[in-house]
């Protein structure tokens, strides 16, 4: 993840074989000498090192401080011999020594600065690699935790089923069957409820997977499904579980009560983001509820749970009848979620 964002400077000095680095160093010195000779007639007196400064910087950057220091030393000797008067001698007067002292100060400074920058970049790259490894390990541990939680919930659901078979009371057996179904559903979707990085869930993909899970858990392959949700909306970590439970309960109710014998059953989830609120509607085409139906007035345990969870998120839950049955969860929009406008078609 982080590797794609590394700066090119992190790749220097280049990891090449020593003979390649030495050859490139001597080539750089030769080119600098040739350029200085070629420009000799056009330059005023006093620039004996002009072409050697870039060579020192370039070699130090590409191959490291050792090769940069050799370039600097070779360049200084060549400039002293060929371009500091009197030429073709290693004159030791005040002027030549001053020029060589100035050159030495500049190139030593350049090489040291580049060396320190490369060391800092190396340490930074190593820290990034460690951070990437830690993030990868954390994600794997988190996935394993979610996997184990899901398996444990499935095991609890199985135990409830076994306990139900031992009960003679039909109402008690029905209550345990309903509880086992809810626990099993939570187990199926628990791996999708949270993100290890805590950046929230992408709402469109989350609702699509949830709809598929609930429909498949009820053994219905004949139901057409549709999710209309802006792609940039997200759920906070705290909202993921209550939203999943409320929406799953709405889908299960639609399957059980709204679409038992429908010839062309359809369930749609529509999402609107308006005025800082998310409106998540589960719609079925069963049309079995009266127009004046109230979720709060019914004695259905599932609808009571959905209403309670909606209130816990600071929102509301309503179910309206008519030609279509619409279960609507309204809750505050997650912090950092973007307003995608009205639901996308």
TrEMBL record:
Its EC number is 2.7.13.3. It is a multi-pass membrane protein. It holds the Pfam family DUF4118. It catalyses: ATP + protein L-histidine = ADP + protein N-phospho-L-histidine. The keyword Protease does not apply. GO terms for cellular component: membrane. It is found in: Membrane. SMART domains: HATPase_c. Keywords: ATP-binding, Kinase, Membrane, Nucleotide-binding, Phosphoprotein, Transferase, Transmembrane, Transmembrane helix, Two-component regulatory system. Residues 144-335 form the Histidine kinase domain. SUPFAM superfamilies: ATPase domain of HSP90 chaperone/DNA topoisomerase II/histidine kinase. One of its GO terms (biological process) is phosphorelay signal transduction system. One of its GO terms (molecular function) is ATP binding. The chain crosses the membrane at residues 12-35, 55-82, 94-117. PANTHER family: ETHYLENE RESPONSE SENSOR PROTEIN, TWO-COMPONENT SYSTEM SENSOR PROTEIN. This is histidine kinase. The gene is pdtaS_2.
């Amino acid at each position: 993840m982080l590797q794609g964002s590394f700066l090119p400077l992190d790749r220097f000095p280049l990891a090449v074989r020593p003979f390649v680095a030495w050859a490139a160093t001597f080539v750089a010195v030769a080119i600098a000498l040739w350029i200085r000779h070629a420009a000799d007639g056009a330059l005023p007196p006093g620039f004996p090192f002009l072409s050697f400064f870039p060579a020192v910087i370039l070699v130090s950057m590409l191959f490291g401080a050792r090769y940069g220091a050799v370039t600097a030393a070779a360049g200084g000797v060549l400039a002293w011999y060929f371009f500091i008067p009197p030429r073709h001698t290693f004159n030791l007067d005040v002027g030549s020594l001053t020029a060589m002292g100035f050159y030495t100060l500049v190139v030593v400074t350049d090489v040291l600065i580049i060396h320190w920058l490369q060391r800092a970049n190396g340490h930074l790259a190593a820290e990034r690699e460690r951070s990437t490894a830690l993030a990868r390990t954390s994600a794997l541990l988190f996935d394993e935790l979610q996997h184990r939680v899901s398996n444990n919930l499935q095991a609890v659901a199985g135990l409830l089923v076994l306990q139900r078979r031992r009960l003679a009371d039909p109402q008690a057996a029905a209550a345990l069957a309903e509880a086992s179904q809810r626990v099993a559903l939570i187990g199926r979707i628990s791996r999708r409820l949270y993100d290890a990085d805590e950046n929230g869930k992408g709402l469109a993909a989350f609702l699509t997977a949830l709809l598929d899970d609930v429909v498949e858990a009820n053994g219905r392959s004949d139901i057409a499904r549709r999710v209309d949700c802006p792609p940039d909306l997200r759920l906070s970590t705290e909202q993921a579980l209550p939203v999943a439970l409320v929406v799953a309960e709405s889908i299960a109710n639609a399957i059980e009560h709204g679409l038992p014998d429908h010839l062309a059953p359809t369930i749609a989830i529509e999402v609107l983001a308006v005025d800082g609120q998310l409106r998540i509607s589960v719609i079925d085409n069963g049309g079995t509820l009266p127009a004046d139906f109230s979720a709060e007035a019914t004695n259905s345990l599932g609808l009571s749970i959905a209403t309670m969870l909606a209130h816990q998120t600071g929102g509301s839950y309503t179910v309206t009848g008519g030609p279509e049955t619409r279960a609507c969860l309204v809750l505050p929009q997650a912090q950092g979620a973007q307003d995608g406008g009205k639901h996308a078609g």
